[in-house]
Write a sequence for this structure.
């Protein structure tokens, strides 16, 4: 008789791991126990089997949402007279570093939900160990029912039996509940200014009917409220755009399954897998048809996610639609609403009904967004199913000190380094308003509390006007932390280096605008990176950012400036409001605007020149249209000249000049757009080749918001690979500013390691 | 080498850093540390206040005023918002060799005219002429002295409490917009009229009728900067509403062209007054006699983050921060 102690680390809580161990022990005839601990899961097995056999059995049968990173096995003294295997309640006061994710409804639950003979038939809060809310209901760790917002719902007899039966799928599933004992649904009507009463299914039927009739319903989901309506009804879509006050920003769709998506979009294997996975992000699919042009501003992609809650699935079925719109209930400047009182107060006029439940959302978590390219899922908004992001540092990449990083200004996240892990929060939004700053602050303290972090270093951006920078300075002074300022584009590159475990590379950050080390605005940088040594070796020749911040929202200003510099007559003829624009350009000369090397702004300019629009009503609207119109079969490109002084510099004016010549020749704009994309990719390749010669490096890292452009990313990676570079781009940490905090952490680690 | 940059004079964050880190530690006077534009103190039982200001505006003659009028109004207004009755003023010129004698005469007459209107006496002066290139045209410094009758009635930052109402005395940003509109290269057909003007009459009537909590004139850095100074010194928050703040259409149009924010444009004849809720209607009625755009724009709030919040028409609450590196975009 032997006894072993197993310690399991990784994502092993909230995924049915203990019941799984229990069932295995019973099958193998072992005695002992299993329990959650601060570090993961601990089990002791006693019997006649060798530890290798037990390990083997466990590894080959893991629950599908578990991620096992490490197993430690120790042989210990057998216990006399032990009769059975049991599950022990969690230890208090110890915090696991692994927070479980919210998971979309599983197939088993879906079947039961529609099975008339099943106890969980039409249980609108159905869930099991494989699915349901977790991250957004946890108040404190460890993940046990009494530490979640499910604690107020006391089990009925049936649920209790399921929860305690080791052979049940709901064994120890903290979100287990049923119509007898679970949360209730409530429906508020704005027109009647009162609640409408009924059984859960009656309310869902009513709401489905209203959606079919063209009303908008706010729906409380897992991490916040959605606004749901009928995408086939152009009038209601228009109304939704107006009330969200974000003219044209594409709306997300939900679909029942991937088969529906395939009817309208191109779907590859990886997209299919991720779509059907429990994470259920919004995936940007390449669309086949013109359908829903009014939903996505005629872009070439549609953002679609699986109907990941029983309620969404039911309404989809009931309405008989292939798709519904389900967009976050985030009015401009205000984070997604998570509370029903707020919803009823703030959404009057925006929608007609509020359907909510009385299970509290402990923390806000938006839908995740991403796209698939080159066999990678590029996460652009970290939210449900992904957050908090977590990565293990390899032994060679870690340091003793703990670090807190506060991120940038837009699409903010916070990240921390604790022991040998980097953990990054969900998307916290643009910090332009008090409401988002409040969200950011509560998420920050939430994260520090959950992880019980004690840190020595605080990392932030260079930009003095960022809220996060002044916050870092404030904390550093108050709590005596050491502060590390990380340049924006260096942080972009380091975020990608972190997820790929690199400490040296040729790094490119093509981006919007971030403050550079020389006080100018950067955004087309090439770096040679060796550990914490960063040398800027490439950028576009500086141009004046005419109109400052305003030119980012209204790139027509900058476009006119370039056009006028290149060809005055063309500029005057081509722009309808050229009189007004010349005033702007003249004003710019007086006001001492900053110098800028951003590539993002050049995509804006080319977009304006090709009539993709004059203003960005939402971020990157014009560049997205520019990408959409590009003729993907075109292989030509524009000429450019690399100037060498101490850095490589390319003057974008020469390229814009050729574009304007093409426009004057009436060349098809789809060809011009493609040639421009090709040219940018070629710039990366030519610069990288030159750097490879000079610095003997062949690892290239691509990061920054501009690479959210799939055409550009795909082209650049392919062309680099053809030249035998080893190419990396962000997939785990966002390639846009959402990844800045992770990059700040990793840069700080490198700095500490090498000083 | 540490050097003075242009931003140190923009009246925003860097100006305050300069004052806090250089001037205050060296001068050290307790009165100066209060950081107000005017200083009020008691001299042998008499309550007096002094304020000083230098004027370097270009062009010297603009739509609605000139550097002479400006240098009287600036100092008189600083005294007036402190609750003082302006009495005396001194005027010093620094003139560049070659400056037009006719222009200097016009400027001087303008000083005399507005000093008379404000009922202040010019009691001392000084003239320096410097070599060509050592100054740019003409610089004027004025120093004013005012008196107060009743200390109790003086507005004070310490009287600010949450729930009090913030009133602006007229539409904002005209002076800054006016100066830009005079720039030949911009080619504005119509020059915007500056708000340059005296506030002493409006304020003395206001103080006769209302227990004014606090007042501040809007100068460099405009409304946003003035409100930020108030929250920094009082410790309270202020919330203002975008759709209540009066801005003339031509000022808005110019801001659009320049890519600037009207909340930060200079004024030279506007002030904000903080009053108790029960007196706001009376206060507004009085101020409207002097400027039809006077109105309530917001409220003092309790939360004590020392921030100025702007409730925008699109929903959401923008933070109106102190100006800092004004042209650097934060958008990625
Ligand atoms: Fe960025
Ligand atoms: Mg002054
Ligand atoms: Zn399930
Ligand atoms: Zn139950």
């Amino acid at each position: 008789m032997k006894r072993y102690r197993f310690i399991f680390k990784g994502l092993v809580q909230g995924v049915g791991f203990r019941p799984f161990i229990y069932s295995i022990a019973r099958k193998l005839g072992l005695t002992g126990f299993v329990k959650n601990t601060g570090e993961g899961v601990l089990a002791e097995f006693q019997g006649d089997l060798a530890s290798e056999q037990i390990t083997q059995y466990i590894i080959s049968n893991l629950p599908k949402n578990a991620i096992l990173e490490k197993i430690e096995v120790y042989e210990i003294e057998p216990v006399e007279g032990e009769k059975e295997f049991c599950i022990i309640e969690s230890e208090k006061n110890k915090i696991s570093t692994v927070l479980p994710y919210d998971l979309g409804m599983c197939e088993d639950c879906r079947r039961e939900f529609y099975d008339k003979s099943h106890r969980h038939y039409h249980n609108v809060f159905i869930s099991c160990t494989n699915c349901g809310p977790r991250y957004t209901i946890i108040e404190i760790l460890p993940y046990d029912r009494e530490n979640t917002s499910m604690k107020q719902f006391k089990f009925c007899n049936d649920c209790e039996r399921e929860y305690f039966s080791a052979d049940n799928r709901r064994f120890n599933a903290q979100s287990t509940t049923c119509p007898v004992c679970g949360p209730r649904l409530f429906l508020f009507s704005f027109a009647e200014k009162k609640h409408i009463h009924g059984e859960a299914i009656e309310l869902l039927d009513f709401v489905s009917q209203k959606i079919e009739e063209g009303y908008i319903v706010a729906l409380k989901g897992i991490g916040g409220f959605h606004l749901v309506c009928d995408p086939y009804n152009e009038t209601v879509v228009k109304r939704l755009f107006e009330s969200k006050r974000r003219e044209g920003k594409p709306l997300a769709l939900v679909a029942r399954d991937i088969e529906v998506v395939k009817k309208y979009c191109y779907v590859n294997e990886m997209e299919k897998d991720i779509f059907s996975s429990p994470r259920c992000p919004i995936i940007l699919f390449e669309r086949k048809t013109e359908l829903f042009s009014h939903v996505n501003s005629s872009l070439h992609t549609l953002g679609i996610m699986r109907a990941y809650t029983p309620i969404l699935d039911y309404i989809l079925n009931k309405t008989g639609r292939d798709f519904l719109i389900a967009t976050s209930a985030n009015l401009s400047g205000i984070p997604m609403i998570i509370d029903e009182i707020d919803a009823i107060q703030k959404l009057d006029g925006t929608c007609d009904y509020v359907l909510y439940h009385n299970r509290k959302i402990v923390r806000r978590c938006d839908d995740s967004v991403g796209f698939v390219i080159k066999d990678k899922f590029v996460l652009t908004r970290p939210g449900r199913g992904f957050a908090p992001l977590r990565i293990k540092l390899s032994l060679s990449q870690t340091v003793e000190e703990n670090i807190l990083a506060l991120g940038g200004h837009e699409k903010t996240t916070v990240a921390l380094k604790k022991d040998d892990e980097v953990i990054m929060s969900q998307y916290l939004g643009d910090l332009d308003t008090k409401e988002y700053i409040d969200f950011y602050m509560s998420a920050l303290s939430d994260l520090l509390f959950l992880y019980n972090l004690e840190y020595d270093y605080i990392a932030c951006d260079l930009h003095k006007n960022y809220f996060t920078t002044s916050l870092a300075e404030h904390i550093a002074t108050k709590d005596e932390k050491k502060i590390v300022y990380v340049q924006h584009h260096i942080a972009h590159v380091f975020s990608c280096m972190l997820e790929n475990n690199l400490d040296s590379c040729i790094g490119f950050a093509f981006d919007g605008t971030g403050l550079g080390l020389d006080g100018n605005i950067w955004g087309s940088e090439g770096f040679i990176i060796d550990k914490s040594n960063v040398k800027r070796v490439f950028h576009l020749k500086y141009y004046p950012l005419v109109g400052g911040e305003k030119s980012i929202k209204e790139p027509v200003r900058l476009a006119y400036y370039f056009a006028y510099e290149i060809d005055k007559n063309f500029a005057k003829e081509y722009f309808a409001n050229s009189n007004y624009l010349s005033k702007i350009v003249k004003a710019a000369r007086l006001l001492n605007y900053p110098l800028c090397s951003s590539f993002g702004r050049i995509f804006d300019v080319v977009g304006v020149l090709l009539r993709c629009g004059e203003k960005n009503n939402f971020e990157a609207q014009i560049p997205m249209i520019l990408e959409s119109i590009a003729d993907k079969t075109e292989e030509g490109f524009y000429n450019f000249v690399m100037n060498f002084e101490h850095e490589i510099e390319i003057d974008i004016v020469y390229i814009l000049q050729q574009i304007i010549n093409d426009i004057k020749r009436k060349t098809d704009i789809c060809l011009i757009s493609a040639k421009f994309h090709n040219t940018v990719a070629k710039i990366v390749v030519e610069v990288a080749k030159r750097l490879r010669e000079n610095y003997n490096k062949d690892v290239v890292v691509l990061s920054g918001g501009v690479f959210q452009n799939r055409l550009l990313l795909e082209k650049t990676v392919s062309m680099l690979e053809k030249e035998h570079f080893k190419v990396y781009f962000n997939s785990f940490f966002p390639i846009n500013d959402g990844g800045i905090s992770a990059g700040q952490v990793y840069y700080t680690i490198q700095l500490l390691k090498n000083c | 080498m540490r050097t003075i940059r242009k931003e140190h004079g923009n009246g925003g964050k860097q100006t305050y850093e300069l004052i806090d880190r250089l001037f205050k530690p060296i001068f050290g006077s307790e009165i100066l540390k209060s950081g107000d534009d005017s200083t009020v103190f008691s001299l042998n039982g008499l309550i007096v206040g002094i304020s000083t200001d230098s004027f370097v505006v270009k062009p010297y003659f603009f739509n609605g005023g000139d550097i002479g009028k400006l240098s009287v109004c600036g100092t008189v207004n600083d005294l007036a918002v402190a609750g003082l009755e302006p009495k005396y003023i001194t005027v010093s010129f620094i003139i560049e060799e070659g400056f037009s004698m006719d222009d200097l005469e016009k400027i001087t007459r303008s000083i005399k005219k507005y000093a008379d209107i404000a009922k202040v006496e010019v009691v001392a002066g000084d003239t320096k002429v410097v070599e060509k290139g050592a100054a740019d045209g003409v610089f004027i410094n004025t120093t004013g002295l005012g008196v107060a009758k009743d200390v109790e009635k003086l507005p004070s930052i310490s009287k600010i409490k949450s729930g009090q109402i913030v009133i602006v005395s007229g539409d904002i940003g005209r002076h800054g917009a006016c100066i830009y509109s005079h720039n030949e290269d911009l080619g504005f057909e119509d020059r915007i009229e500056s708000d340059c003007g005296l506030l002493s009459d409006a304020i003395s009537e206001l103080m006769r009728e209302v227990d004014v909590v606090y007042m501040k004139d809007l100068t460099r850095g405009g409304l946003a900067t003035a409100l930020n100074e108030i929250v920094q010194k009082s410790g309270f928050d202020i919330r203002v509403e975008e759709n209540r703040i009066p801005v003339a259409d031509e000022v808005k149009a110019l801001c659009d062209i320049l890519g600037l924010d009207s909340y930060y444009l200079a004024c030279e004849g506007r002030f904000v007054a903080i009053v108790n809720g029960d007196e706001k209607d009376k206060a507004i009625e009085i101020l409207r006699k002097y400027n039809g755009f006077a109105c309530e724009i917001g409220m003092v709030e309790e939360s004590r983050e020392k921030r100025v919040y702007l409730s925008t028409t699109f929903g959401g609450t923008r933070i109106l921060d102190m100006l800092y590196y004004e042209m650097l975009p934060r958008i990625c």
Observations:
- The pocket of zinc ion (ligand 4) is lined by residues A 155-156, 158-159, 177-178, 180-181 (CB under 6 Å).
- Chain A touches chain B through 52 residues (CB under 8 Å).
- Residues 677 and 712 of chain A are 6 Å apart (CA to CA).
- The first helix of chain A runs from residue 17 to 27.
